[in-house]
Design a protein that fits this description.
Radius of gyration: 32 Å
Strand content: under 5%
Number of strands: 4
Order of helices and strands: HEHEEHHHHHHHHEHHHHHHHH
Structural class: mainly alpha
Helix content: 55-70%
Strand order of the largest sheet: 2-1-3-4
Shape: globular
């Protein structure tokens, strides 16, 4: 009897426990469903308000402001120094172009913004007057490059005995100069300190363990010296900043975003990967409306296309701007001469000479052509690469025998490569889409070049003489008018002088 009662009680208790467990699981599942639905609504709402459903008809035309959205480790630094710095003067750069951390779109003559900031920067720009350009890179190579550069910059600090010494040096440097360092720029202001602390910790561990010489062939798995690549890609910091970084940057959802909802949307996408498709569609539409999309792997073709799409239009803007300035100067000259016709004869010539003079850089830009731009680019990029390579070698000496080379990359296991590809699934799809855009751009540029050649050929055949680099007719008219005006003033002043001498 007692045994039967005990058995019933045990079964009852087990049944109650089972009911409780089922209830907890149901509640958790319900809560999980609610959390997913909430995230889904958040992401869809953001995507709906962010996507540009219609491709801009004038997207091939350069507007007043050029926004170079520089995705890190895509070779954009060479474009900045070897293209944009030759096309735009320092006075035309908007504050926050790499070396400046304040942005004021109201700045007079602000024509170029080149920065690692994401697309949310557009919220501070006059959208209807802004053209956006960017460069994308194979996501696997970009992850490798991001890892290598983080290590390279962090290793420069190993000349110090400890992190306290690094902090004191940084304070002194900030007091002496207002210059901005790599550590002030996204994403390096997060990635480099993280890697720097890791390098110092591993160096200290080697000292305590008595290790002085290391022998290994895998620079990406040298855990006694630096953070192994497999550990790096799985760290929460890398998941938040590095993986799918190009997609998040192009839609304005990085941890550096100006959008108020960016953190919540990014959190939802990182938690529920299926929601990433909504972000990917927005990124594709952003690329569709950009003036230019380059590819790091197609370096030569990308550079040529940039010169023909962006460079040619900037050069054209300089020509129009200088022509407008010439007209304004002639009007100013006419006004001043009317009010002072009795002045000395040399004053008119001197005034014309002074108002038409420009700085050496401005003259060089006015005489710039696409061909000259490409020549300057090739020379510049060679020098820039040499200096960067030298700095890299000196930096990596501090973590010898680690040495990042193409051969070392090829030794990385296929499993690790596939993991990087999986972690960057959005960037992989966006890169494939960018390749299609790149092909369309090539076709567009080729069509324009053929059309221009046909027009030139037609012009030459209808003229009595061949035309080579003839100036536009309106420039000839302005020059002739100016010369006639100077001649008229000169004759008028001389006639007044002769009249005065006769009276005397």
């Amino acid at each position: 009897m007692e045994v039967g009662m005990r058995s019933k009680i045990i079964h009852l208790v087990l049944g109650l426990i089972l009911v409780v467990l089922l209830s907890v699981c149901t509640i958790k599942a319900s809560a999980s469903d609610d959390a997913y639905k909430q995230c889904e609504n958040t992401v869809k709402k953001w995507a709906s308000s962010s996507v540009d459903h219609k491709v801009q008809e004038d997207k091939h035309s350069l507007r007043d402001l050029l926004f170079f959205l520089h995705v890190p480790r895509t070779g954009g630094r060479t474009y900045f120094h070897c293209f944009l710095k030759k096309l735009y003067s320092n006075s035309q750069e908007c504050p926050r172009s790499y070396d400046k951390l304040r942005f004021d779109p109201r700045k007079a003559n602000c024509r170029l913004l080149s920065t690692h900031d994401d697309y949310s920067m557009m919220s501070k720009l006059p959208k209807e007057k802004t053209s956006v350009v960017t460069i994308l890179r194979n996501p696997i190579d970009r992850v490798f490059s991001t890892y290598e550069f983080s290590v390279e910059v962090a290793a420069r600090f190993l000349i110090h005995p400890n992190l306290s010494s690094v902090a004191k040096m940084a304070q002194r440097a900030r007091r002496k100069t207002s210059a901005v360092s790599t550590l002030d720029i996204w994403p390096w202001k997060y990635l480099v300190p993280w890697m720097r602390e890791d390098l110092f910790a591993r160096r200290d561990a080697r000292k305590l363990g008595g290790q002085s010489h290391l022998v290994t062939n895998d620079s990406y798995d040298m855990e006694d010296v630096l953070m192994p690549l497999h550990e790096y890609i799985n760290d929460p910091i890398a998941r938040d900043i590095v993986h799918n970084g190009a997609t998040f940057q192009i839609v304005g959802l990085t941890n550096n975003s100006y959008f108020g909802e960016a953190h919540e949307v990014r959190h939802c996408v990182l938690k529920y990967h299926s929601l990433g498709d909504h972000v990917l569609e927005v990124a594709k539409r952003k690329l569709d409306n950009m003036l230019y999309v380059g590819l790091t792997e197609n370096h030569k073709e990308s550079a040529t296309m940039f010169a023909n799409i962006v460079g040619s239009q900037v050069i054209s803007q300089h020509t129009i701007s200088s022509s407008s300035a010439e007209v304004a100067e002639q009007r100013s000259l006419l006004s001043s001469t009317k009010s002072d016709l009795t002045g000395q004869s040399n004053s008119t010539h001197e005034t014309l000479k002074n108002v038409s003079s420009t700085g050496e850089d401005e003259v060089r830009r006015e005489n710039l052509t696409v061909g000259k731009l490409m020549e300057a680019y090739e020379s510049c990029i060679a020098n820039l690469r040499n200096s960067q390579a030298e700095r890299r070698v000196n930096s990596l000496k501090r973590i010898s025998p680690a040495n990042f080379t193409k051969e070392a990359r090829r030794q990385v296991s296929k499993i690790l490569i596939e993991e990087i590809e999986s972690l960057n699934s959005l960037d992989m799809k966006l890169y494939t889409y960018a390749q299609h855009i790149f092909t369309k751009q090539q076709t567009h540029v080729l069509h324009n070049m053929v059309s221009a050649q046909e027009i030139q050929t037609s012009t030459q055949t209808t003229s009595s003489y061949p035309i080579f680099n003839n100036p536009p007719s309106w420039k000839v008219s302005i020059s002739v008018t100016a010369l006639l005006l100077v001649l008229f003033i000169f004759l008028f002043v001389n006639s007044r002088r002769r009249t005065s001498k006769v009276k005397l």
